[in-house]
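Troubleshooting: if your tokenizer reports a length mismatch, compare your output against this known-good record of 315 residues.
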Amino acid sequence: MGGRWILFGIFCSSFIPFHVSAAKAACHDPMFGSCYGISHNCPAGCPSLCEVDCRLCKPYCDCDKPGAVCQDPRFIGGDGIMFYFHGRKDKDFCLVSDSQIHINAHFIGKRSKKGRDFTWVQSVGILFGHHQFYVGAQKVAQWQEYAENMLIQLDGEEVMVPASEDKTWRSPETGLTIQRLPETNKKLKVKVEGLFEITARVVPITPEESRVHGYDVTEEDCFAHLELNFRFESLSKMVDGVLGQTYRPSYQSRVKMASAMPIMGGAEKFASSHLFATDCVVSKFGVKKEAGGDAGSLSVECGSGYGGKGIVCRR
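Known-good structure output:
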């Protein structure tokens, strides 16, 4: 899959920076003259924040395009199929694992009356090269819309992104850039050229969500969590993880699509010992294809350096 963006359907290359205000969104690409500048109401599923597909001239929710991880975690796979993966509260799970990138997520949550955990993604830990990148929602009791509720770290050092919209922070040594997107300054785009691009924002569980879904969230904790969207470049055919597996050309979804809540199981094989560990059963980080070989012809590099756990070597 080297060198191409892995997307689905209409979500190809026409997404342009846009402004969202008072539940409105517009296309700001003048190349789409018949849609350019036209204001749209955001869909009911995301009344306060949405995007516009300039090609179709229609608004849509960020959480409805491939690579999305939102809500109780609701995923849209690289194949475009929606599923849920609940994991367990206060545990870490591998979302994506490939030779050059490994992404774990830390789940927070609470026990439901039905005996399972309600969970949300509180933070992600990303390994690329010899670097560790962290994005997380800070714990908040009472949600304040304009407070800075996101913590960002690169190799253990906090990153302070300028507060103004469209401001960009760069790390020439790692190739990492972080940009504030226009909508209320609360959304960030994180990118390593040729490897990945992530958009992230922090959201709370609102009283209305708690009432509708029976979360029973109290005033002590609004369970601030991340809404994420991933784009990947140069993933291999052996990529794995809760989300990563859905980008394999041979992948066939095992979720029951007829179900009201199609759930991805297998939490035990995606479990990691901590946010920067590469010890999940499906780990592929550091596994490289031999020149001229396929995904079944592998050479393995094992070593420590990420949280002391190293890479678990497997065929």
